[in-house]
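User: I'm putting together notes for a lab meeting next week and I want to include a structural view of one of the chains we've been expressing. I don't have a solved structure, so I'd like a prediction I can at least talk through. The sequence is below, exactly as it appears in our construct file.
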Amino acid sequence: MTEGRESAEASFIFCLYKQPELFDDFKNLNENNDETLKTDDGIFYFSLGKQMYLHGYKSFDHVSIYTFLESKPNVKKHFEELGGYTSIDELRSLVSIDNVDAYYDKIVKMNFLMSLYDKGFNVLKNISKFKEMTSQQVYDWYDYMLNNIGIKSSQDMQIESLEIDDTFLEECDKGEAMGIIVFSYRQILN
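Assistant: Thanks for the context. Below is the predicted structure for the 190-residue chain, given as structure tokens.
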């Protein structure tokens, strides 16, 4: 369920670094008990980029990042431990901002599956199927399964078949399931 999480978070975050205006689209990420990003590096880089963007930086180049970090020696030290600007420049060059939504969706799907697992759902049984799905498809699959179980286990309602089979067609031919003949009663209906 968490395989590839670091690369998904890195790809997503460095799309934001490549085009900082995208921080507007994800401004509530990891705020107010939201834990979308889970890796330490992902949280660090996202927070750094978001703070830079909020301080008016529209481009994250070598000079702007080190200018921002000038008054933050502990953050700067950790930034250097992670590879400094070289790491950012290298990772930004590998991603395309056209894929930012796909990277984000992968993170959301991982979080969704982890939440389901924590609540007792056996997501591991279908993990290979889920790898091929988007987060919305996983949600729809579980929604369908739960609705299907709910309908089948309801005791107080009769399930009507909507299949048109030979028996139904015979009932129509006999007039038993014909319904109202609209043309015969058209003057009354008018």
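A couple of points you could mention at the meeting. The two ends are 62 Å apart (CA to CA). The chain is about 60% helix and 0% strand.

User: Perfect, that's what I needed.
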